[in-house]
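User: I'm writing a tutorial on reading structure tokens. Could you give me a worked example: one chain, its sequence, then its tokens, then a sentence or two explaining what the tokens reveal?
Assistant: Sure. Here is the example chain.
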Amino acid sequence: MREFITSNANNAKDQFFEKANEAIDAGLFWRGNLAKAVRQKDFKGTLWGISVISVVLFLYVWQHMEVVKLGYDVQALRQQKQQLTNEYYYLKYKMNDMNSLVRVETIARTQLGMQTPDPGQVVILDDSFSLLPKWFLFWEKASAPRVKP
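And here are its predicted structure tokens:
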């Protein structure tokens, strides 16, 4: 019985090595074909394929990076616009505050020592303005046709 087990073990061992040798031979066969292809310089299609894939991949990555960069630029411009808008409204508020009549009157009375004028000090001027000389206006009134009521 012991011989039977030993013969089966030897048989299995032989079968294992036989299969391993076949696998190694198959690997050598494939490697031999590859070496032969390299020797014959029969890999132009492979290089062209790798080149095209590399260019497409480069363009895809470059496009993605440009989109990300432009996104950051847009965000920075939005923040700058918001800052300038805030500054605009702040300056508009300050301008209205500086030009308010209450503030101007307070500064005139306290810092400049001005007072409200008396009624006798006020002179009212004619506000009608004309580029024509006064004698021409008189002439124009005199030559106008008179309408009888």
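What the tokens reveal: The first helix runs from residue 2 to 39. The CA atoms of residues 25 and 83 lie 74 Å apart.
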